[in-house]
Amino acid sequence: MAALRACPEARGKPCAVLEADVDPEAIIEKVKLPLQAVNDAARETGIGPGWPLNRALVRCPDLKVLTPDPAGEAQLLREMIAQAESITPDLEVACKDTLLLDLSRTSSRHAAHLGELEVADIWPLHARAATPDLARLAVRHEDCHERLVTSRDIARLPLELLHFLPGGDEFLPLLKDWGLSKLGDFMQLSRQELTARLGPQSGAWHDLLHAKTCRLLRLHRPPESMEQTMDFEEPVTATEPLVFAFKRLLHVLSARLAARYVAVKTLRIVFHLERGGVFLREIRLPEPRVEEGELLRPIQVLLDSLKTGSNVVGLTLDVETTLPTAAQRDWFIRQLPQPERWTDTLAQLEGLLGTGKVGIPVPPVSHRPDDFKLLPADGHTPSPQGGFFPSNSMPLRRFRPAAPVMVAADADPRQPRPLALLTGPCRGQVMETRGPFLHSGHWWDPEAAWRRIEWDVRLAGDQLLRLAFTPPDRWVIDGLYQ
């Protein structure tokens, strides 16, 4: 719909958007790319999302391929959020085209307005269910639109909807080989046997489809915008006028920060150029800052090495805020080095070597000699893909003494893998594990010898904790990660 808004002459014709941004003139070279979305006119010809482009063109030769419009998609999402907030403030942005609304505290009169929502001549599709995940799955199928869906209704839907669940793509071919075609076929399988064969994730799917789990929404709270823009009467070529302009912008920004009791974590600067383009720079601060002078210092370092290739006709300054940090200084102990100097040094190095050439070299997961990748050197390293453990160590709050628990584990007597916690302060199914980590000592002394096995586990409620097993059968919770 965002692409059609940018190309109104295509309305009423069969149209599709590819998974990747492709030049329409080069479609012949991308004939195997899958379709990301299609309109109603294209759907009436029998094609749908996921079809390869070459197969879709055989079914519909008049199919028009549109260029994705990320800016239009973001604008549509903002309009959807604004309409949804008129019904309830408790909503979650599940993805760029899906919102989850909590209607439990909303009157039936407001809930009935779901069918009256209109966003830019678009009627959003909706479905209601007892749990958020069940509603998110139901709205993907046309048979569930504008209905209150139960687990019995979900059972009639095709098995391909598992594609929208976490990890569903991995096991979907295997389930089809088993002869399953409906979600109901999957729901009739034994949960215990599924978990034993496919792992804890399949058990979580089984509970989700039977509406046995109801999680809390990750509520959307739009941040208050502090964006400021300044246009120059004449194009600026020197650094001094830019510094003067930033002082004015930061003076206003500092007052807004003090009034809201927040601090700046990231500075986003957009230079509007005379030739018509923009030049974007982002500055991450080592510590949250509020004072005007401390915010101006990294900007001055940036301006000293700035090369835009054109005169500047305007500025846009925006920030990402966080809670301010507090520290108690001792009169008789030397203070730590100023952390802002680290950012200044990084900015100077990037100005000397070029953007993207300064960072922390980290060996990737490969055996190639001298292979490495650069991570940002600003202390904001991204978390690893495909796991729940972050790249830096998490603090472990240990129990003193350790809390004894009963654990359901597999039958391996030497290294039993935990499957579920049955007693203790944290109970539930183990969704993911890391380990075992073996520890032992005094093996030369039979009376003083000791041995224990540690596991880092994640429970169904996203609790991270450390389990310890002491032969022959003692399990304890060593601590919680926070």
- Largest sheet features: 7 strands, antiparallel
The total of beta strands comes to: 20
Number of domains: 4
Give the % helix: 25-40%
Could you describe the 3D structure shown?
The strands form 6 sheets. A 7-stranded antiparallel beta sheet has the order 14-20-19-18-17-16-15. It has a 4-stranded antiparallel beta sheet with strand order 8-11-9-10, covered by helices on one side. The protein has 482 residues and is an alpha+beta fold. A hairpin with a 3-residue loop joins strand 19 and strand 20 (474-481). It has 4 domains: 2-68, MutS, DNA mismatch repair protein, domain I, CATH 3.40.1170.60; 78-209, no CATH class; 228-327 and 337-353, DNA polymerase, Y-family, little finger domain (Dna Ligase, domain 1, 2-Layer Sandwich); 396-481, no CATH class. It is globular, with a radius of gyration of 28 Å. Helix 10 packs antiparallel against helix 11 (200-209) and helix 12 (239-260) runs antiparallel to helix 13 (292-304). The protein is built from 14 helices and 20 strands.
